[in-house]
Amino acid sequence: MNIVLNIIWVVFGGLMIAIEYAVASIGMMVTIIGIPFGLQTLKLAAVALWPFGTAARSSGWPSGCLAGVMNVIWWFLGGVAIALTHLLWGLVFCITIVGIPFGMQHFKLMKLALFPFGKDLTFS
């Protein structure tokens, strides 16, 4: 079932979201300082391309204070704006019963957009 939902997701906007994240990632990786933030944006692109069956779990690196500081810096680089966009789309999709699974994926992307550092992705 996840494969069917992922194909529907990609056809109806998931590919566009993933491409936007990839372009933003390339823009962030232009400077050496932006490379960690670009890598986190690639993480968002991977989940945005194939969200059903993907889970974000706490990882070992960066952890603790480093992850917290990097997440705060991330908020100012656009993490809050990305999260608000996913919140809006999640609410729009949850209006209908058919759209609820897609809205829930936007809420998952919203949480990852707020706190991308210190997370690992697992695809099933």
UniProtKB/TrEMBL annotation:
Record keywords, A-Z: Membrane, Transmembrane, Transmembrane helix
Domain Inner membrane component residue range list: 4-53, 69-119
This protein's GO CC annotations: plasma membrane
Secretion signal, residue range per the UniProt entry: none
Segments crossing the lipid bilayer: 6-23, 30-52, 72-102
Organism listed in the record: Paramuribaculum intestinale
Name of the molecule in the record: YccF domain-containing protein
Pfam families: YccF (PF03733)
